[in-house]
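Study this pair:
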Amino acid sequence: MRLALKIVIVAGLSLAILLPLLMIRGVIHDRQRFRQEAIERIAQSEAGRQAVAPPVLVVPYTETVAVEDVDAQGRVLGVVNRERAGTWQFFPQTATLTGALAPYTRRLGLHEVRMYSLSGQLGAAFEARIPENAADAVAPRRIGRPYLSYGIADVRGLRGTPRLQVDGAAVAVEQGAGDGMGAGVHATLAPVSAGDVLRVGTAFAFELAGSASLAVVPLASDTRVALDSPWPHPQFNGRFLPQSSAIGADGFRAEWAVSSLASDAQRQHRQGTRIDRELASLVFFEHSGADLDVLGISLVDPVDAYVRADRASKYGVLFVLLTFAAFFMFELLRQLRIHPIQYALVGMALAIFFLLLVSLSERIAFGTAYLAASAACIGLIGLYLAAVLRSRAWGFGFAGMLGLLYAALYGLLVSEDNALVLGAGLLFVILAAVMLATRRVDWYALGGAPARGPTPPPLPEH
């Protein structure tokens, strides 16, 4: 009966430790939110997530059309001539973007935000025919000056003045992407006439800063993108994955080739979808609701300090259960009486480890923070258990077992692809060790109840 009561008390204490663990996880999530706010503040002051698009050749025009004139009651009064403005949009036959992403960081308080600078060269080739005037037109169209419209999600990220060459000649780049064309820059071309065929080759050199991610809209009939960077942890996303990629410790290189037959970007652009700042964020991270096809890349830290601390806290309950189970075994096997308060104090020491971990990792490298937090908690528990268990050998031996457990947990945290299999293997090893250590234990004797043997066969009747 006393054994059952003790089990109930230990189980209750294990559940009670969940409360501080949940509070610590809440602190971790709050710090993650503060970090996200720091990212947004830096994006507001420098540049946000970026998206760029190949140039679109835009030719504005004004035409005179005959329309019915109606009164307020809807009666037709006659036919009148009215002017109507419009634009023709021509997409490039080919577009090639090459460039290098150079990562750097910005700091706001305790938080570091990863930024990048793209040194890019964007080439495009057009072959477009200006429509002829209709034979039955009321008056010839008035065709305005054509211009090249370059879409850039956040033009604040442009460093210096971009350089544009059209058919080998330098052309001035002007502010804005053009009327109704969204964010970006544009360049005005020479006048054209109805029926002209425009064959234009462009070369656009620019340097663009952004935060976290870059998206490219494949507007050309044949869009090719080649990017490289010294950052070793790229995440490819968007609707199109690279055709080829090479990733190593010294960085990555990736190449895309997208045909307009595989992309709906041209139709989406004609319908008015633009890569303004909000859209660059939307299409890049929430593709299910995206309005514009993109290919893209993020420079990510595969397991950052907050993610690691959050993952570590998920193992907090396991740490407490294993420690309490070991306490319970010591109490039963060595006939020691460990007070529930002593259970609770050790459980709190285990819980405070995770709070130390997240607070230290904001100021020093995660590995160093983990070592410092685990050494402090293991040392405290070892000294305390040496007195509780009335043996320095048992106390520091128990601390050594905790050290192995913390080391195994660190291996789980730094592993991105093998965390599940390593965690499952660790649990199996721990369970196997407990089962082997207790395989000869007489639980009935420990519980104070006599063991019952097999029921003897009935006596024969005479």
In short: The CA atoms of residues 386 and 393 lie 7 Å apart. Residues 277-290, 449-455 have pLDDT under 50 and may be disordered. The radius of gyration is 35 Å.
